Amino acid sequence: HLMDQDHHALCHFAASGIAAVINFPLWRASSIAQSGFKIEGSNFMVRYYKAVVQPPFKGLVATMFGMTWARGAIFYGSDVGKAFLLDSGVYGPVAQTMPPLIIGTLVQAINMPLVRATITIQDPSCELRNVREALMYIYQTRGLGGLWHGVSAGIMKTVPKYITAVAVKDYLEVHLPHSSDPSNQKSSNMLRSAVKSITAGVAGAVLTNPLDVLRNEMFKTDLSLANTFRKLLKEEGWSFSARGMTSNMTAVAIPIAVTIFMTDVLTGLNLKTSI
Q1: Residues 6 or more apart from 143 whose CB is under 8 A from it?
Q2: What is the DSSP letter of 250?
Q3: pLDDT tens sequence across 19-68
Q4: Is 128 helix (H, G, I), strand (E, B) or coil?
Q5: Region 131-147: what's the mean pLDDT?
Q6: Considering just the CA atoms, what is the radius of gyration of the chain in Å?
Q7: Dihedral sign, CA of 115, 80, 165, 158?
Q8: Rounded mean pLDDT of 72-78?
């Protein structure tokens, strides 16, 4: 049983790592768009191409590390935590919600300095060369608390995103039909996993885009959450909630979908090798 748990954990973190590799360019474009950083270009496609593809890729390793352990911990911890709570007789919706709520909050708090530093250096006009320099600059200019500036908005957007994604994933896992044809089992399972993964990813991304914008604007302006919200409303109205939505749909939905899908694939491979 312990070995099965170890394999289950490995599948989650490996899938999260694969998603991080795929996601870095998309995350970079989303961070630039939501933060309102300026990129020179004659049209949207040129600017998007520069945001996704053009070097330098500052903070690449740190960002991928942060994404891998954070997403792996949330999805694996949510699965294990839910099973434990249900076995302990905890009411179903509480068992569903509490693990991603608690783990998502802890992960966001731990990762916050890294998140702030990596987003800061995505500004094309930023002269800081790497994450270490960004962390030192933030600490020297804003103090220790500056490293956690925006953590409230970060938690507000991360926790609902993963509660939603995990709930949708688990709901569809139970309710999507299985193929009754044994010869079609493999393709049916892959289709179920794809539908489950994409739906969970999109649901999480759409719900939390306004909170992503709030957090990134807090990084850029160093205003409080309330003042940032008032500033955005005054300057853009409620349309701020859709800022960077296209980039965010790819940057958030894709890694969540890839993580869920690849976890299913890797778990399936492990089951086959153990039979």
Answers
A1: none
A2: I
A3: 999 888 888 887 887 777 877 765 656 666 676 666 778 889 999 999 99
A4: coil
A5: 93
A6: 20
A7: negative
A8: 95
Helix 185-221 and helix 92-120: axis angle, to 10°? 50
Helix axes 92-120, 60-87, angle to 10 degrees: 170
Q: What are the residue ranges of helices labelled H in the chain?
A: 2-35, 44-53, 60-87, 92-120, 131-142, 151-175, 185-221, 225-236, 245-248, 254-274
275 pLDDT above the threshold of 50: no
Q: Which two tokens stand for residue 72?
A: 């792996």
**Segment 2-22, tens digit of pLDDT:** 446 777 889 999 999 999 998
Closest residue by Cα to residue 134 from 112, 155, 119, 153: 119
Is the pLDDT at 211 greater than 50? The verdict is: yes
Question: 254: closest CA among 29, 88, 37?
Answer: 29
Which is nearest to 151 in space by CA: 116, 179, 201? Answer: 116
Nearest to 101 by CA among 21, 163, 26, 52: 163
To the nearest 10 degrees (0 to 180), the angle between helices 225-236 and 185-221 is 90
